[in-house]
């Protein structure tokens, strides 16, 4: 029986994906895996039993990846699982900003009941503009950015994108009508809307800063539904107050922007739809179950993708540092026990690597335990697991 511990509100549809071999939130259980959303795990101590973290969502800056790898924990996210939900909200926020929807609805609510709110004098203060023909800059053209960009093309907008790391798969998703900018300065030039869809990391923290905002059209609307801190909020407030920016819409609040009349803040709602929450929880549950029962890695963010069918009923998996002679040490220990390697797969991702070794049968349980212990003692190995091929197929 595997033990799953959840943090945050995880969709019941996703939790129902777990089969009978899994218990969820059992009291006093040693968790094999966490299922989480945005809970901040940077100060959290991982129990030794923990082998996997499934992040039901896209962003994983709430998880200490280096420490997870060092402690032999595979971390998974759910790429694209909530992208449509974010796309729809970003489109809504562009329309809200351009049609003064919130201000007009608030005004209507506070006039005397029965007053003629359709009078020209009253309604002309809420005159808006259309999206058709306006220029949208999309920074980051991954799962969310590409959907926003394509939808904006379909709404008749002129779309220009910037993504220096665009994958070939992501490029295939993009409408051919989307222009590609060579730099941040070029993408924001003359844009009516600028929307940011990059992960938060060292490079992207503060990427929308005072200098970049000074190159916006003063009538531009800025949208940040990616992460707090990617946009420099002080620079936004300065630009709004000096009429260098028209509007800021974001999913992330702080004291600097709170209550500003030309800022719309939502309580991190981008991925909060029934459909997106179910998609993400289902994807995370599947990745965690696959990893626990087969050792195969799908959608891991700290370890490489590695999937291989069982070549024999016994499989050893190892998470280790990506340094020379790891495979030499692993295979010679296995050979010392007169055990044959039926298949070996290895792949690295940055400082860590993952190895799957399918081996011939052990002579007895003692030999099995001895080998696993010896492998775990190799310096730079952070986790060794022995997995028996699941019944009912070669997954
Ligand atoms: N508000 C929400 O609820 C919500 C929901 C989903 C995602 N997000 C956030 O949005 C981010 C993007 O989500 P996604 O699913 O599209 O991720 P993704 O990984 O599919 O796409 C991110 C894209 O950003 C690009 N990129 C990385 N660094 C860049 C840089 N310096 N300049 C330009 N482009 C860069 C990458 O090449 C990639 O194509 C997530 O990391 C998460 O933080 C927020
Ligand atoms: O990165 C994400 O997927 C979003 O920010 C959603 O976060 P949430 O799961 O806390 O709503």
Automatic annotation (TrEMBL):
Pfam families hit by this protein: 2-Hacid_dh, 2-Hacid_dh_C
Coiled coil: none
Superkingdom assignment: Bacteria
ACT domain ranges (all copies): 315-389
InterPro entries tied to this protein: ACT-like_dom_sf (IPR045865), ACT_dom (IPR002912), D-isomer_2_OHA_DH_cat_dom (IPR006139), D-isomer_DH_CS (IPR029753), D-isomer_DH_CS1 (IPR029752), D-isomer_DH_NAD-bd (IPR006140), NAD(P)-bd_dom_sf (IPR036291)
Annotated PANTHER family: FORMATE DEHYDROGENASE 1 (PTHR42938), HYDROXYPYRUVATE REDUCTASE (PTHR42938:SF47)
Protein name in UniProt: D-3-phosphoglycerate dehydrogenase
Organism: Limosilactobacillus alvi
């Amino acid at each position: 029986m595997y033990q799953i511990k959840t943090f945050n509100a995880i969709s019941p549809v996703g939790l129902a994906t777990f089969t009978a071999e899994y218990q969820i939130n059992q009291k006093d259980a040693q968790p094999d895996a966490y299922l989480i959303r945005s809970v901040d795990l940077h100060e959290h101590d991982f129990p030794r039993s923990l082998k996997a973290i499934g992040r039901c969502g896209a962003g994983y800056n709430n998880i200490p990846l280096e420490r997870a790898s060092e402690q032999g924990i595979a971390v998974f996210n759910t790429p694209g699982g909530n992208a449509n939900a974010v796309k729809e909200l970003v489109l809504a926020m562009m329309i809200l900003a351009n049609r003064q929807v919130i201000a007009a609805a608030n005004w209507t609510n506070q006039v005397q009941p029965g007053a003629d709110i359709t009078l020209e004098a009253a309604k002309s203060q809420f005159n808006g503009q259309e999206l058709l023909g306006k220029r949208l800059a999309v920074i980051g053209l991954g799962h969310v950015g590409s959907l926003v960009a394509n939808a904006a093309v379909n709404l008749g907008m002129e779309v220009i994108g910037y993504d220096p790391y665009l994958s070939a798969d992501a490029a295939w998703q993009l409408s051919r009508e989307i222009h590609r900018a060579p730099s941040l300065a070029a993408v924001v030039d003359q844009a009516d809307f600028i929307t940011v869809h990059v992960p938060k990391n060292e490079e992207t923290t503060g990427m929308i800063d005072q200098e970049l905002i000074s190159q916006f059209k003063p009538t531009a609307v800025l949208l940040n539904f990616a992460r707090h801190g990617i946009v420099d909020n002080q620079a936004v407030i300065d630009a709004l107050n000096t009429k260098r920016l028209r509007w800021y819409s974001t999913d992330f609040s702080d004291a600097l922007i709170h209550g500003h009349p030309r800022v719309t803040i939502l309580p991190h709602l981008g991925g909060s739809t029934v459909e997106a929450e179910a998609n993400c929880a289902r994807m995370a549950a599947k990745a965690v179950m696959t990893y626990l029962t087969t050792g195969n890695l799908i959608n891991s963010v700290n370890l490489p993708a590695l999937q291989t069918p069982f070549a024999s009923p016994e499989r050893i998996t190892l998470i280790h540092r990506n340094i020379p002679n790891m495979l030499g040490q692993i295979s010679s220990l296995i050979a010392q026990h007169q055990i044959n390697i039926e298949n070996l797969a290895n792949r690295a991702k940055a400082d860590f690597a993952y190895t799957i070794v399918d081996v011939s049968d052990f002579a007895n349980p003692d030999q099995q335990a001895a080998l696993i212990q010896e492998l775990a003692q190799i310096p730079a190995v952070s986790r060794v697991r022995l997995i028996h091929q699941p019944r009912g197929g070669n997954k």
